[in-house]
Amino acid sequence: MKIVLFGPPGAGKGTQAEHISNMYGLPHISTGAVLRRNIEEKTQIGLVALQYIERGRLAPDDVMMDVLKMELSGCKKGFLLDGFPRTLAQAEALDKITDVDVVLNIEIDADSVVERIVNRMVCSKCGKNYNKKIHSHTACDCGGELIVRKDDNEEVVRERLRVYESETRPVTEHYLKQNKLAHIDGHGTIEEVFERIKQALYDYDKK
Length: 207
Ligand code: AMP
Known about the structure:
The protein is of the alpha/beta class. The chain has a single domain, classed as Rossmann fold (3-Layer(aba) Sandwich). Helix content is 49%, strand content 15%. The strands form two sheets. A five-stranded parallel β-sheet has the order 2-3-1-4-8. It has a three-stranded antiparallel β-sheet with strand order 6-5-7. The radius of gyration is 16 Å and the shape is globular. 31% of the residues are buried. Bound molecules: adenosine monophosphate.
């Protein structure tokens, strides 16, 4: 299966991706995580991406296409894309490379996004997300250090939401026309949202 996880920052894409990837045995490709790895390793892609990420802006489409092609090269049987596409140009470029089966659009209101993101901690090793309000962990289950992402503060989150509304949300129209869009209510617990996702994938399978 070729699945795209779509939705605003803080919708729970990363967390749900982990569950979906475990259950369906799909490689999880998070373009944000790839960029953060590049920033850490001080690569050319990382140097470019940093300027955008810190300001809550989208990295340029040509950079993202290079990242995507590299990541997809080992995923012939299927994948779970998390955080890509984020612009119409990216969606159209993706169509030229492969046929996506279903786009899970996780919907959540802006206040819940801000609340989740300002309380988010992420493992510096495996990328797993934790919520300070729910978890009292000081380290990740994998032993990695929990850190706060540079772009996870209220000011940058508001900008990321603004960019989402203007550049990313319109991409849903593209997939709606292709009859590939499934709406998922992103409110509630991780388990509740995952149940909705499983139902949507089951419904897709029956189509
Ligand atoms: P994420 O981890 O998905 O929240 O992504 C973190 C940041 O990486 C985003 O706010 C963007 O600056 C950048 N980014 C990730 N994926 C993309 C993409 N497909 N297009 C442009 N920028 C991206």
